Structure to design on (168 residues):
């Protein structure tokens, strides 16, 4: 009986000393992002009101709905394309992307505009960062912080995976 109690105590001690991983979001995987995605929803979060947001110094946020994004994980290259619409010009641009961990428990998606040789096309070497709210096999929620007329708000983009295939 003593041996059984001692064994139970040792097992309890060993299990309590194991890794204490929290339930926070795991580090996003580049392989999860691999493929072709589409922005299927755009939502504004902040004070109530009407907002106009120019995203990534490219176009109005509404133009990004239906845009196609391609992510290649092994070298961080990719692209996105905005379709021609009544208020939107057609745009296709290459990007170089990666994940960034700011140290506050969140993860961010970051990218820069690049040319065909993956060289930054912005002389100031600027880029863009968005917080990843969630990244699952077929869905990603990304939060873009922005301001309009001095008011801060977030634009939440919902990406849906279209295909594992990718082509630049």
């Amino acid at each position: 009986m003593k041996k059984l109690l001692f064994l139970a105590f040792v097992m309890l001690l060993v299990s309590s000393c194991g890794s204490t991983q929290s339930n926070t979001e795991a580090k996003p995987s580049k392989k999860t992002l691999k493929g072709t995605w589409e922005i299927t929803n755009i939502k504004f979060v902040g004070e109530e009101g009407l907002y106009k947001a120019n995203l990534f110094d490219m176009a109005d946020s509404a133009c990004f709905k239906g845009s196609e994004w391609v992510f290649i994980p092994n070298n961080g290259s990719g692209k996105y394309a905005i379709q021609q619409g009544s208020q939107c010009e057609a745009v296709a641009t290459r990007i170089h992307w990666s994940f960034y961990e700011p140290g506050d428990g969140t993860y961010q998606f970051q990218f820069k505009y690049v040319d065909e040789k993956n060289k930054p096309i912005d002389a100031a070497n600027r880029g863009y960062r968005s917080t990843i709210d969630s990244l699952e096999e077929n869905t990603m929620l990304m939060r873009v912080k922005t301001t309009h007329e001095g008011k801060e708000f977030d634009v939440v983009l919902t990406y849906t995976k279209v295909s594992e295939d990718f082509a630049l």
Observations:
- The radius of gyration is 21 Å.
- DSSP finds two helices and ten strands in the chain.
